[in-house]
Write a structure and sequence with these properties.
7 strands, globular, Rossmann fold, seven-stranded mixed beta sheet, binds S-adenosylmethionine
């Protein structure tokens, strides 16, 4: 009896501690929204360093370019609002509730900044943008916003976005699709949302770019859907399908279409749950082009 009460007490205490931590983090996030300078005061740096995780360089802890980049921060907020619409989100499992969305943004901020930065370089090359694995459309919104800005600057711009996704979650995993920790993570339809967001995303991304001829969402299984479209010449592709087979198939299909100095960005490379995707990328890299390893489990390939 005594042991049972003790255990219960510990459980309640740890749950309260967890809640308190989440509230503290949230409060920090809101207080940080107004910060925007590259070079912060030591106090501000300490707060940022704590909430932006482990990515702070020991040599230059003041240097957090994603914080100082106001265009990025605005794009990011827009992208998450688009990906997590309030009215639909309430039907999602509590894991994705808005309460922890702010933490989600913090966790992914460096990865999102990499998408933003690399696409910022590639937009000037003139080729199209392609994404394999669209899901909620957060990265899609970041990419489409680059296209919108570029179209405003360059009147003759013809950059288009092509996003491939089943909108039904991942395909059947291969035996290579293990995790670093050995547990079974993937089965067909993992990551499927509780609501069908295809029509919604199509509309929302088109509204963002204000030119519906430039946005193409292709619904269906990779690689079958590759036959349905001509993506033309490509300057930037984000490969983010989590599994061995679709990563390999996307890579082999897109690489010949990539312009010189164009970039392939891999979101899953260092993800402990995406061992199969990493293997597909390594195999392709050995035969074709070296990999550049980036923070937060990303990697990229530049076409030479
Ligand atoms: C991690 S999510 C993509 C996240 C998105 N790139 C972002 O950053 O916002 C992976 C997506 O890949 C899609 N996917 C996985 N295997 C697929 C396949 N064989 N065909 C089509 N889509 C697939 C899933 O439906 C899922 O939406």
């Amino acid at each position: 009896m005594k042991i049972k009460t003790k255990k219960l007490k510990q459980k309640v205490l740890s749950s309260l501690r967890g809640r308190l931590n989440r509230y503290m983090q949230k409060a920090e996030w809101f207080s940080r929204r107004s910060l925007g300078d590259f070079f912060q005061t030591p106090e501000k740096i300490a707060i940022l360093a704590k909430s932006y995780g482990t990515h702070i360089s020991k040599k230059s802890p003041h240097y957090l370019p994603w914080v100082g980049d106001k265009t990025f921060i605005l794009d990011l907020e827009e992208a998450y609002n688009l990906g997590f619409p309030k009215d639909k989100d309430k039907f999602e499992p509590s894991y994705w509730s808005r309460k922890i969305l702010e933490e989600e943004i913090q966790k992914d901020i460096v990865r999102r900044y990499m998408v933003y930065q690399t696409s910022c370089h590639c937009i000037k090359l003139g080729g199209n943008f392609v994404e394999f694995g669209v899901h909620r459309g957060v990265a899609a919104a970041l990419m489409v916003n680059q296209i919108r800005r570029w179209n405003q600057i360059s009147k003759s711009a013809r950059v288009e976005y092509f996003g491939f996704d089943s909108f039904e979650g991942v395909s059947e995993p291969n035996p290579k699709d293990t995790t670093l920790f050995g547990y079974k993570r993937w089965k067909k339809h993992s990551l499927k949302l509780s609501w069908d967001n295809f029509e919604y995303l199509n509309r929302a991304l088109n509204q963002l770019v204000c030119d519906k001829h430039k946005i193409h969402l292709i619904k269906g299984w990779i690689p079958q859907t590759f036959e349905e479209v001509d993506v033309g010449q490509v300057s930037f592709a984000l490969i983010d399908v989590d599994l061995y087979e679709p990563t390999k198939q996307s890579l082999e299909w897109i690489y010949p279409k990539l312009l010189k100095t164009g970039i392939l960005l891999f979101d899953d490379y260092g993800d402990p749950e995406c061992i199969g995707a990493k293997e597909a990328i390594d195999e392709f890299s050995k035969k074709n082009a070296p990999l550049i390893h980036l923070p937060d489990g990303l990697a990229m390939m530049i076409k030479s």
